[in-house]
Amino acid sequence: MRTQVGIIGAGPAGLLLSHLLHLRGISSVVLEKRSRDYVERRVRAGVLEQGTVDTLVEAGVGERMLREGLPHHGIELRYGGAGHRIAFDKLVPGRSITVYGQQEVVKDLIAARLAAGGDVRFEVEDVELHALESQPYLTFGGERLDCDVIAGCDGFHGVSRPAVPEGVLSVFERDYPFAWLGILARVAPSSEELIYARTERGFALHSMRSPAVSRFYLQVPADARLDDWPDERIWEELRTRLETVPGFTLATGEIMERGITPMRGFVTEPMQYGRLYLAGDAAHIVPPTGAKGLNLAVADVRVLTEALAAYFGSGSTELLDGYSDACLKRVWRAQHFSWWMTTLLHTFEEDDPYARKLQLSYLDYVTSSEAAATTLAENYVGLPFEPGR
Ligand code: FAD
Ligand code: DHB
User: Fold this and answer.
1) Is the peptide bond prior to 287 cis by the omega test (within 30 degrees of 0)?
2) Which residues contact 17 (CB under 8 A, 6 or more apart)?
3) DSSP state, 331?
4) Which of 104, 234, 365, 382 has a 20 to 30 Å separation from 18 between CA atoms?
5) Euclidean distance between CA atoms 129 and 165, whole angstroms
6) Nearest Cα residue to atom 3 of ligand 2
7) Which residues line ligand 2 (CB under 6 A)?
8) In this predicted structure, what is the pLDDT of residue 388?
9) Each residue of 330-348: pLDDT tens digit?
10) CA 261 to mean position of chain CA atoms
11) Residues 325, 153: Cα–Cα separation, whole Å
12) What's the rounded Cα separation, in Å, for the pair 268 and 283?
């Protein structure tokens, strides 16, 4: 079997790459180890930047997102007994975010690939990468797939990054001493906009998925276990951290899904080796506070599509050679923003009263200075793509 681009992973990165390549007349095969049902149900991100929304619409896979997604023109920072709106419409006119579940994006992309006769294989076992320096091929479940290029879109725990010989990649990382407990609940959102709440007991986030479904996150210790968090404890903690402004009451409901996510920043440089190109979480992850992970995956895939289109069109490797450099600028901006949002809003055990005063002072600055609020807003809605990317 042979294809132009062998793609490992049917997350947002792998599926979008396969779809964008198809629009350019480039063939690909997607190999995914989980079932279709599993990837379509996996609850994760929810905030799509302006550029991500534009990319999906331009690629013809944004129709349901435009219908069902929730456009948001601001977020609230809540601390010290008051809420403060960061107004995208005023600070970064014309740019906003859309709240639409990652698994809905995945569903839309799978449907588009299958409708176009795309080759997406689920429950594929033992994917291995070979001959990355010359004529690469993949093996899986007793089969062999020859490729011109391999795209490693298999997330942080995938097989692509470890297939690069030792010593080639530099790794930059930071672990945070806490995690996020996330829940999806059958209850109408208690707020029209997302609430990022900083309290002495830790961070809480109120997000949503639809007029009838809400999404919440709680800062918990890094070693927290779901067993320690029965429903009543989750709701009580969310109430304590969110019901801090006059007149705000948190509505509660059935918890449909729950999970604990470690908080980590991680970047590998370069994001390529031989004929292997890493995209999305396979190359970098961010703590989720800035809502950047999925959006970075989309940005990588845009750059890689242009580079592959140039390569298969004219044989030029110039853009492919520059792939990693072209991506890493945005990756590091997002790393910084995610670190900044995380330190602004979470409590750190080692913080002394002086550190807490500094954090509150910084929050006051961000919510009262138009320049500082604009910095937050333009990063949150996402920096524009460079022309042609
Ligand atoms: P993944 O989605 O991880 O996809 C990789 C795929 O590869 C998976 O389907 C996996 O099963 C498959 N795979 C792995 N190993 C193999 C193998 N050996 N063989 C074959 N297939 C394999 N980002 C945002 O932008 N906004 C947010 O609001 C946001 N919130 C988040 C909240 C949470 C709780 C979490 C956990 C993440 C959040 N993120 C957010 C991050 C975002 O979900 C990820 O960055 C995004 O999933 C990256 O997409 P990806 O396609 O690169 O990787
Ligand atoms: C969501 C996730 C995030 O990481 C974030 O910063 C905002 C919202 C969400 O899942 O809705």
Assistant:
1) no
2) 5, 7, 28, 151, 153, 279, 301, 304, 305
3) H
4) 382
5) 12
6) 291
7) 45-47, 194, 205, 207, 215, 288-289, 291
8) 55
9) 999 999 999 999 999 999 9
10) 13
11) 18
12) 6
Q: By C-alpha distance, which of 374, 385, 279 is closest to 54?
A: 385
The CA 75 to ligand 1 mean position distance, Å, reads 24
Tokens of 219: 């800062």
Residue from 222, 255, 223, 225 nearest 238 by CA: 255
Measured between alpha carbons, how far is 136 from 146 in angstroms, rounded to an integer?
6
| Ligand 1 nearest-atom number relative to CA 293 | 45
What is the set of active-site residues? 72, 196, 288, 292, 380
CA distance 1 to 3: 7
70-72 vs 97-99, strand pairing mode: antiparallel
Q: What is the pLDDT of residues 113-159, one digit of tens each?
A: 999 999 999 999 999 999 999 999 999 999 999 999 999 999 999 99
- In this structure, the number of other CB atoms found within 10 A of the CB of residue 76 comes to 19
Predicted pLDDT of residue 340 = 98
CA of 46 to the centre of ligand 2 (A): 5
Q: Is 362 helix (H, G, I), strand (E, B) or coil?
A: helix
53/65 Cα distance (integer angstroms): 8
Q: How far apart are CA 108 and CA 126, in angstroms?
A: 27
**Integer Cα distance of 38 and 107 in angstroms:** 11
Half-sphere exposure (Cβ direction) of 22: Cα atoms closer than 13 Å: 24
Confidence of residue 387 (pLDDT cuts 50, 70, 90): low
Q: Which residue has the tokens 């007029």?
A: 211
Name the pairing type of β-strands 2-8 and 28-31: parallel
Distance of CA 150 from the midpoint of ligand 2 (Å): 30
Annotate 84-96 with DSSP letters as a single string: EEEEHHHHSTT--
Q: Letter for the amino acid at 51?
A: G
The widest CA-to-CA distance across the chain, in whole angstroms, is 65
